[in-house]
Specification:
alpha+beta; 9 strands; 2 domains; three-stranded antiparallel sheet; 13% strand
Length: 216
């Protein structure tokens, strides 16, 4: 095994899950131990920037911004160059790091390890190589069950793509993994006697209603 294949410590799963949920709700930023990795910046990713992100918009040349399809006016995307690199990545580092968009502040490739999913897009191969190296630790069996619940939610979503309204269905593997984090509670139940959690197979309609509720 080479250093580039060696496992990477992803941290305590419950701490990661709490941080990821806070990032998704806008209460915090993701704290990813990236090291020198820039895979997410070099994998042909579009960066969504919302109209209220005035600081980020001011630091990204207007020529690199274009209207985000299907979203209200003011929402824009920043594309990538001919190499698949973010145009703000200069000499291997983000040139607007202190002013980067919210999408970048909340992105965390550990979500693929949490959902036990992969992005099959060859352009995302560097992200996949990074994601498969992450290893979480667990403070007890309930934490392991929570991880299993996220993975179960991801499997469910992948197999029920027609269940959700088109505007709420995940459009790519990243969105699917993130949504699995959001709704993983649907796949857990507590034991009244022991207080421990265990996995359940929820009614698909319950999952659909929860996705709609969380999106409202």
């Amino acid at each position: 095994m080479t250093d580039s294949d060696a496992p990477l410590p992803a941290g305590d799963f419950d701490a990661w899950l709490e941080g990821m949920q806070a990032a998704l709700s806008g209460e915090a930023e993701s704290d990813v131990p990236c090291g020198e990795c820039t895979a997410c910046c070099t994998s042909s990713q579009f960066v969504h920037i919302r109209p209220d992100e005035t600081d980020a918009l001011a630091h990204i040349p207007a020529a690199l911004q274009f209207s985000a399809p299907g979203l209200p006016a003011g929402h824009v995307l920043m594309g990538y160059d001919s190499r698949g690199h973010c145009p703000m990545l200069i000499d291997g580092a983000c040139s607007i790091y202190a002013h980067r968009p919210r999408t970048c502040r909340t992105y965390d490739c550990r979500v693929f390890a949490a959902a036990r999913t992969r992005d099959p897009d060859p352009a995302k191969a560097d992200i996949t190589r990074r994601a498969i190296r992450w290893r979480f630790t667990y403070d007890g069996v309930d934490a392991e069950h929570r991880h299993d619940a996220v993975a179960s939610a991801a499997t469910f979503l992948a197999g029920h793509d027609s269940l959700l309204p088109p505007d709420l269905a995940p459009a790519n593997p990243t969105q699917l993994a993130v949504l699995a984090v959001v709704i993983h509670d649907c796949f857990l139940a507590g034991d009244a006697g022991s207080g421990e959690t265990h996995l359940i197979e929820p009614d698909p309609e319950v999952v659909r209603d929860e996705v709609i509720r969380r999106s409202s």
